[in-house]
Amino acid sequence: MYVKICGLQTAETVAAAVDAGADAVGFVFAPGSPRTVTAELAAELVVQVPAGVETVGVFRNQPLSEVLDTARRAGVSTVQLHGDESLADMHQAKAAGFRTLRAFSAEAYNAITAAEKQAWDAERLLLDAVEPGAGVTFDAAMLHSVPSGFWLLAGGLTPGNVAALASSLKPNGVDVSSGVESSRGIKDAALIRAFVRAARS
Ligand SMILES: O=C(O)c1ccccc1NCC(=O)[C@H](O)[C@H](O)COP(=O)(O)O
């Protein structure tokens, strides 16, 4: 079970995620989030992450030139596109040397045509609640089908519910932000450890 801890802002919580065994750590560059970091702060945090752990920059409906420039300055390995970005944007990000993740709500994923689904399912996907990072539970009952390729489940996951939700939907991995916070935007090392343990239980 691949585990991504998202919305990190401090050296202490990045270390907690890495020590707990997370596969990926996420830094939010989308404006307007309580977790938004600058490329400069992210760069300081990224250098403490061992090579085997994926470093993910999270963006939402920002121009691709800004995404690639910020991702380069931060030194992240992966860009996560959390808005209405196109397949062409994904391909351009990969051509620029980044790994990619693309988020969909259940409604947006259901709306993809069968032909488009084949192309999107070849990408690494993340199925999330409509409002990302809000701790709102992903509405699995809404989903017509799960992706056929690699995908992560997100949206309102916590140490208490991740094992049951992952075992029922069978994603390749899970992604969390609010569920490992003591208050909005403030990560908690003990909750991070508990989440990674529960996700792999
Ligand atoms: O975390 C944010 O504030 C955020 C803002 C804008 C776009 C994406 C954002 N987060 C993306 C994530 O990968 C979160 O981990 C995911 O949405 C799950 O969040 P949560 O329900 O709070 O666990």
From TrEMBL:
EC numbers, comma separated: 5.3.1.24
Pathway entry: Amino-acid biosynthesis; L-tryptophan biosynthesis; L-tryptophan from chorismate: step 3/5
GO molecular function terms attached to this record: phosphoribosylanthranilate isomerase activity
One Pfam family per UniProt: PRAI
Catalysed reaction, written as an equation: N-(5-phospho-beta-D-ribosyl)anthranilate = 1-(2-carboxyphenylamino)-1-deoxy-D-ribulose 5-phosphate
Keyword Membrane carried by entry: no
Keywords: Amino-acid biosynthesis, Aromatic amino acid biosynthesis, Isomerase, Tryptophan biosynthesis
Gene3D superfamilies for the chain: Aldolase class I
Domain (N-(5'phosphoribosyl) anthranilate isomerase (PRAI)): residue spans on this chain: 3-197
Top EC class for this record: isomerase
InterPro entries in alphabetical order: Aldolase_TIM, PRAI_dom, RibuloseP-bd_barrel, TrpF_fam
Entry keyword annotation includes Metal-binding: no
HAMAP family found in the cross-reference section: PRAI
Protein family: Belongs to the TrpF family.
Protein name: N-(5'-phosphoribosyl)anthranilate isomerase
Organism: Arthrobacter stackebrandtii
Upper taxonomic lineage: Bacteria, Bacillati, Actinomycetota, Actinomycetes, Micrococcales
